UniProtKB/TrEMBL annotation:
The lineage of its organism: Bacteria, Pseudomonadati, Pseudomonadota, Alphaproteobacteria, Rhodobacterales. Belongs to the GART family. It comes from the Bacteria. This is Phosphoribosylglycinamide formyltransferase. It is an enzyme of class 2 (transferase). The active site is at H109. Its EC number is 2.1.2.2.
Length: 196
């Protein structure tokens, strides 16, 4: 079966939803969960599922993004993934790294791309007076949050919404969207999936 490596920085709820889907008749299995944050809660969740884990702390690398990315590439090459899923991985990647894995790397981003690349997406959507928000899964290219969009899910923004309220409405959709897009991606399907 296909091998999927998942990169995380935090709690890893999207990583768990991907792993929960990769059972039974699913054509892929998780081969590695890698975190730049040694304290990421997701590492213990992955280990509890019997998945290989590795932490590569970015802090000793300082400003040397190339050296950090090279260390991540070494770990990924050992795991021999067919697909790499960024799931709440909060590091900016070098163009060398994205080129190394282009066509095989997905990311989930908590906005309706191309709106609100980067951070604080929900607050920015509320601040802008948008009537809807959501999440996107896209292919990773050198442009931050800019690669081809493969799937989206949307929710209304309600009167009086806060960042936390909106995040709580969107996260369960992320957990549906990412596994659905990964299944299609593995089959070679690249048309936009609209969940909602
Ligand atoms: C998710 O909401 C994901 O979309 C977001 O971080 C959260 C990770 O949660 N990703 C980004 O902001 C990427 N720039 P999780 O660790 O529970 O999956």
């Amino acid at each position: 079966s296909k091998r999927v490596a998942i990169l995380i920085s935090g709690g890893g709820s999207n990583m768990v939803s991907l792993c929960e889907d990769m059972v039974g008749e699913h054509p892929a299995r998780p081969c590695l969960v890698l975190s730049n944050n040694p304290d990421a809660g997701g590492l213990a969740k992955a280990a509890a599922r019997g998945i290989d884990t590795v932490a590569i702390d970015h802090r000793p690398f300082g400003k040397d993004r190339a050296a950090f990315d090279a260390a991540v590439t070494d770990a990924l090459e050992r795991a021999e993934p067919d697909v790499i899923c960024l799931a709440g991985f909060m590091r900016i990647l070098t163009p060398e790294f994205t080129a190394r894995w282009e066509g095989r790397m997905l990311n989930i981003h908590p906005s309706l791309l191309p709106k609100y690349k980067g951070l604080n997406t929900h607050a920015r959507a509320i601040e802008a007076g948008d009537t809807e928000a959501g999440c996107s899964v896209h292919e990773v290219t050198a442009e931050l949050d800019g690669g081809p969009i493969l799937g989206q899910a949307r929710v209304p923004i309600l009167e009086g919404d806060t960042h936390d309220a909106l995040a709580a409405r969107i996260l369960p959709l992320e957990h549906k969207l990412y596994p659905a897009v990964l299944r299609r991606f593995i089959k070679g399907e690249r048309e936009l999936l609209n969940l909602s």
